Amino acid sequence: PQGDSSFVVMTNFIVTPGQKQGTCPELPDAGPCSRDSDCSKGKYSRQGQGLMTGKCVHFNSSVKTCEIFGWCPVEVDDHVPSPALLSEAEKFTMFIKNSITFPRFKVSRRNLVETVTKQYLKKCTYHKVTDSLCPVFDLGYIVKESGQNFTMLAVKGGVVGITIDWNCDLDWPVRYCKPIYQFHGLYNDDSNVSPGFNFR
After folding, report:
1. What is the pLDDT of residues 80-121, one digit of tens each?
2. What InterPro entries does the record tag this protein with (predicted)?
3. What's the predicted TM-score (pTM) here?
């Protein structure tokens, strides 16, 4: 994951069987060619998957592309599995531990406040109305509260932000200082340019 305090839940993936480092034809939209001189040896195509070898080779029986040195065969992501391979992740839960410090007032506070006991933690699941202090969250609930659809998100990926707001008036006893959780969709699913996330 990128950034502090982040994590990844993998719900789907595209397998490229037998992929290993070597030479192979580039994808047609990234490296079309008709002769070797169209493929500059040692050069990268901005949309390409690897370093050009200087050869123009057959991608298939009717299309030629520049040969590359990279992860071969190249990844073809035209057919994303739908439904997602791990759509059950909607029922997964996560336990968030968070704390805040007000150094000027020598006050520290955790999100495991007084009402959160061992017994409570064993059975609670966060709900903004009925269990707003429970630090155990259903992934499906988080996605729904962020305004997104888990089934769609699980297919191509997405980003959800969780804000934990500590709006505390320290003139009051510290027990009144409690976290407020909010969830935000941070990924524009209207964009068709490079949807999802790539890990190689």
Report:
1. 899 999 999 999 999 999 999 999 999 999 999 999 999 999
2. P2X1_purnocptor (IPR003044), P2X_extracellular_dom_sf (IPR027309), P2X_purnocptor (IPR001429), P2X_receptor (IPR059116), P2X_RECEPTOR_CS (IPR053792)
3. 0.74
Of all residues in the chain, the percent with pLDDT exceeding 70 is 92
Q: Which residues of 132-144 are buried (b: 16+ CB within 10 A; e: fewer)?
A: ebbbbbbbbbbbe
What CA–CA distance (Å, rounded) separates 159 from 107? 32
Owner of token pair 């209207």? 190
Task: Give which of 21, 22, 25 is closest to 56, Cα–Cα.
Answer: 25
Topology (CATH) of 87-185 = atp-gated p2x4 ion channel fold (2.60.490)
Separation between Cα atoms, residue 41 and residue 105, nearest integer Å:
64
Contact 63, 34 (CB under 8 A): no
